[in-house]
Amino acid sequence: MAKIRWSREAEQWLKEIYEYIAKDNPNAAGKVVSGIYNKAQSLIDFPELGYKYRDEPEGDIRILLYGHYRIAYIITADYTDILGVFHGALDIERYLP
User: Fold this and answer.
1) How far apart are CA 10 and CA 16, in angstroms?
2) φ, ψ for residue 10, nearest 5 deg
3) Which of 44, 50, 77, 82 is positioned for an S-S bond with 64, CB 3.0–4.6 A?
4) Where are the beta strands (DSSP E) in the chain?
5) Residue 15 sits in a domain of what CATH number?
């Protein structure tokens, strides 16, 4: 059971997702961000829940889906590091070089 660590970039993405949705509906914004966070927490018990996106020397980058969002993460020996949260319409290659 590995601990979850959120990168600064991933935290910023969550904040931006909240702010964007909250312009129209603050309640929905809170629900979406909470849902993303809770989905990522499932990686504590099931770190390979998402699909394998790409091999890297540090480990496999994996993607976990939540609604229209993709949660990118990498599993290391001690942690599951959340790299970013991306809307499905975005070109993820631009953010995960």
Assistant:
1) 10
2) -65, -40
3) 50
4) 3-6, 51-56, 59-66, 69-75, 79-87
5) 3.30.2310.20
Q: What is the dihedral of CA 13, 17, 20, 24, to 10 degrees?
A: -170
pTM recorded for the entire structure: 0.88
Q: Closest by alpha carbon to 17, among 38, 31, 3?
A: 31
Residue 95 lies in a domain: no
79 belongs to a structural domain: yes
Count Cα atoms within 13 angstroms, Cβ side, for 30.
3
9 within domain boundaries: yes
Q: Which of 12, 27, 2 is nearest to 83 (CA)?
A: 12
- List pLDDT tens digits, range 28-40: 999 999 999 999 9
Structural domains counted in the chain: 1
Which of the 8 DSSP states describes residue 94? G
**What average pLDDT does range 40-51 have in this prediction?**
93
